[in-house]
Amino acid sequence: MEYDAFMEGVEPGGLRNRADIGILICYMLDNINKPFLKDDLVELIQENGLANYFETNASVADLIDAGNIIYTDDEKRYIQITKNGKLISKQLNTSLSLSVRQKAVGSIVKLMERRKVENENPVSIKKAAGGGYNVTFRITDGMRDLMSLTLFVPDLSEANAVKRTFHKNPQRLYSIVLAGVIGEKDMIDDALKGLK
Q1: How many degrees, rounded to 5, is the angle at CA 100 between CA 98 and CA 105?
Q2: What does pTM read for this prediction?
């Protein structure tokens, strides 16, 4: 097979052929089966070393030009597969290795789980009077607020780091605070496990 795509950032077993990158994009969108942020799709492919960032963007543009995927919003942020794209996915996905297909679907599942956690446990970052930032965490059960907490941090990079860490495990913060306010030492010890 001829390699006609840039290979920078592509891991061993990743795609080095433009046609395969297009098939991968169709395969991923077919598995998602709803509008998806274009930037998220490109980032997933690039972060997982499946294809080069620039080649992936070029393939998205080619697929749009060919009518295999479309933008679903005026800002051109969300893309969705068309009937033609679904045919490509169904008929040609076996040309992609099983490991590439598994990695692609696994990355989609992880991203959708992360987005669910972020949506159910929103964090806002606001500039504080006199400098620094207030980071407000909301922990929900999907229907109602369980806890809201605001934390002051000195700069934006720390605020963003706190937000990322919180989203990795919002339940841990809830458990630590709950254990602290009810004075249960064993609960505190259990909640703090894994932080070391």
Answers
A1: 95
A2: 0.70
